[in-house]
């Protein structure tokens, strides 16, 4: 990788995200999660490829896997910084795909990272709603 294509440092990233809207913070977290998932899938495919490779090929694949693992770690650190920024703004961070335990106890759908559609205290009857929610 050339010096000009290196990602910004974690310190610079932490400073930069303070200027982003809450919506942009969530979008960045989703992008990072997607990137991580793709890297993990790639590593799994590379591990499978090692079964038919020569010693030299295996060594190369191990280097690529190790580099991908380093990138995953970096992206996880960025997600942690996004979480801190969201929480510093007084919002609750909920990992994608997980429900908040307090909301589960009350039978309510949580507002994931502050991006809910219903107003505060407003409940939606999904049985009569034909809309598509992402």
UniProtKB/TrEMBL annotation:
Keywords: Coiled coil. Residues 96-106 have a biased composition (Basic and acidic residues). Signal peptide: none annotated. GO terms for biological process: proteasome regulatory particle assembly. Residues 93-134 are annotated as: Disordered. InterPro entries: TMA17 (IPR038966). One of its GO terms (molecular function) is protein-macromolecule adaptor activity. Residues 22-56 form a coiled coil. This is Translation machinery-associated protein 17. It comes from Penicillium subrubescens.
């Amino acid at each position: 990788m050339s010096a000009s294509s290196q990602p910004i440092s974690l310190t610079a990233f932490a400073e930069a995200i303070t200027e982003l809207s809450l919506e942009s913070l969530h979008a960045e977290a989703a992008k990072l999660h997607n990137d991580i998932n793709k890297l993990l899938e790639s590593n799994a495919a590379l591990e499978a490829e090692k079964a038919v490779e020569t010693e030299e090929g295996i060594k190369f694949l191990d280097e690529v896997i190790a580099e991908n693992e380093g990138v995953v770690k970096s992206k996880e650190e960025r997600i942690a910084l996004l979480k801190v920024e969201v929480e510093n703004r007084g919002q609750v961070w909920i990992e994608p795909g997980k429900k908040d335990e307090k909301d589960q106890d009350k039978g309510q759908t949580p507002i994931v990272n502050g991006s809910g559609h219903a107003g505060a205290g407003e409940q939606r009857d999904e049985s009569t709603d034909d809309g598509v929610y992402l």
